[in-house]
């Protein structure tokens, strides 16, 4: 169990920086323990990558589907021939998939059988505060439960569950507490994209193991988490027919930034991002994902002959001490042979909602103590206090947020609860195309980067959070509260924006 003093100790141990690496090196992590498992002893591409099971509701009343989920420990075969104790939803690592439809509610009862409190957040969802899984809205350990209601009053999106209990989230997510939530709608269903067994969610992350095959957790331990997992298996393979596949990629890592490409350098299509489909497909040779981000891609394997093997590689930040043959490889595709394929990727996918006119501009600076004196992590010079409201927002307001990474060496990213946003600018350049032109809820910020985001805060009143989605950073204080409320709005502003008090 992570205690506040443990977090502060880890933070205070940040003592140096790797300018080329772009991440701080903590004294408490990064050096191999005598009991660490040597990753070179783990056979690569020896296990088949599983496809997560689709969870069935315990009751379906047409307009509402009900689910029961147990948050519990379980054993998983992550490494060939070994079992690892992990945290799970319903005993699955990673957790199962809930498939939902816009306009139909999903109600989930989460029962926490772990020895630590949890708070289950549906990342990217537009939900009332009571079901957001905020850092202090805890489910008691060893049998406590909470009912979460997801109205699904938003367009299709690739969402995912994770723990958000403050000071716990870094370790519980690292130990496996993630699952997938695929929300669809008529817009998506009208398209003849690859579907059924040709539509595959893939959760990506890294890990570190001791010589008994158990996960080793240390705060800010990016240097030693060198074993790459895809759907809960270390360096697996996945057999594909010679046809189009849709892969929904989720970066569920604590800290790892990925840039993914095929080993032959060939192109594929990116069709979506965090908040669903792009307006049109993009021909790309790589996709980049910071922790929490998603990419929706289509790879056409019909160009390959049977027996072809391709590796999904990672060319993202390879830090000193990270062997390329470990962090640079994710999974292997094995082409089995030709197959009938009637799916298509149309030239137009969707129409994004109009941006609207912003009436408020705000600025946020993400920073840490890079000297190592305290190791504190800040937004606008403050560490997180769950009892403090950092930002007051008028219900229905459209705002532009300028978010800056004030650090010289350390990458961050930025996630806002409740809303999907649009990226207007990156480093002063307008974003008029590319993957960041779609709906987003998480955006990467390398050292010195500045992005401008626009969002409309409507649907629900209440208190939500924004934070760095590098889990270790959030656990160490890089988070803030915002409150959406009609009560903060002046009468003149309400009249100007066409709102009426209830």
TrEMBL record:
Belongs to the multicopper oxidase family. Residues 1-34 form the signal peptide. Residues 71-174, 239-303, 372-485 form the Plastocyanin-like domain. It comes from the Bacteria. Keywords: Metal-binding, Oxidoreductase, Plasmid, Signal. It is an enzyme of class 1 (oxidoreductase). CDD domains: CuRO_3_CueO_FtsP (cd13890). It catalyses: 4 Cu(+) + O2 + 4 H(+) = 4 Cu(2+) + 2 H2O. Monomer. It comes from Streptomyces camelliae. InterPro entries: Cu-oxidase-like_N, Cu-oxidase_2nd, Cu-oxidase_C, Cu-oxidase_fam, Cu_oxidase_CS, Cu_oxidase_Cu_BS, Cupredoxin, TAT_signal. This is Multicopper oxidase CueO. Its EC number is 1.16.3.4.
């Amino acid at each position: 169990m992570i205690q506040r003093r443990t977090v502060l100790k880890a933070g205070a141990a940040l003592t140096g920086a790797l300018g080329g690496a772009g991440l701080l090196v903590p004294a408490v992590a990064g050096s191999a323990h005598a009991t660490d498992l040597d990753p070179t002893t783990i056979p690569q591409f020896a296990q088949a990558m599983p496809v997560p099971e689709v969870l069935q509701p315990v009751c379906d009343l047409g307009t509402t589907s009900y689910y029961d989920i147990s948050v519990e420990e379980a054993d998983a075969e992550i490494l060939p021939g070994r079992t690892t104790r992990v945290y799970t939803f319903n005993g699955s690592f990673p957790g199962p998939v809930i498939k939902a439809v816009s306009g139909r509610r999903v109600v989930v009862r989460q029962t926490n059988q772990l020895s630590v409190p949890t708070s289950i957040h549906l990342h990217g969802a537009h939900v009332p505060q009571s079901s957001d899984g905020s850092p202090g809205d805890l489910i008691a350990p060893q049998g406590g439960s909470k009912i979460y209601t997801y109205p699904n009053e938003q367009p299709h999106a690739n969402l995912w569950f994770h723990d958000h209990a403050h000071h716990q989230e870094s370790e519980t997510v690292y130990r496996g507490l993630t699952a997938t939530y695929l929300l669809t709608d008529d817009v998506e269903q009208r398209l003849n994209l690859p579907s059924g067994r040709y539509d595959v969610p893939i959760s990506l992350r890294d890990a570190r193991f001791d010589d008994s095959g158990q996960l080793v957790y240390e705060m800010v331990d990016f240097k030693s988490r060198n074993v790459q997992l895809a759907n809960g298996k270390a360096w697996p393979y996945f057999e594909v027919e010679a046809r189009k596949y849709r892969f929904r990629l989720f970066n569920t890592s604590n800290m790892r930034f990925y840039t993914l490409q095929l080993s032959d350098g060939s192109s594929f299509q990116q069709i979506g991002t965090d908040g669903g489909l792009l307006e049109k497909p993009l021909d790309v040779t790589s996709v980049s994902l910071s922790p929490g981000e998603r990419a929706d891609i289509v790879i056409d394997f019909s160009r390959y002959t049977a027996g072809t093997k391709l590796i999904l590689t990672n060319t993202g930040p390879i830090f000193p001490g990270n062997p390329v043959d470990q962090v640079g490889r994710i999974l292997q595709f094995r082409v089995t042979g030709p197959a009938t394929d009637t799916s298509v990727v149309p030239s137009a996918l969707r129409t994004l909602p109009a941006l609207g006119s912003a009436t408020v501009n705000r600025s946020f600076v993400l920073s840490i103590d890079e000297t190592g004196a305290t190791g504190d992590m800040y937004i606008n010079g403050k560490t997180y206090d769950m009892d403090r409201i950092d930002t007051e927002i008028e219900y229905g307001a459209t705002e532009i947020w300028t978010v800056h990474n004030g650090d010289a060496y350390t990458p961050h990213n930025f996630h806002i609860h409740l809303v999907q946003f649009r990226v207007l600018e990156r480093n002063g350049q307008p974003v008029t195309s590319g993957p960041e032109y779609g709906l987003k809820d998480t955006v990467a910020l390398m050292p010195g980067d500045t992005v401008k985001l626009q969002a409309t805060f409507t649907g629900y009143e209440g208190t939500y959070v924004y934070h760095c989605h590098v889990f270790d950073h959030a656990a160490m204080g890089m988070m803030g509260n915002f409150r959406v409320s009609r009560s903060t709005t002046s009468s003149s502003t309400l009249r100007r924006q066409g709102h009426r008090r209830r």
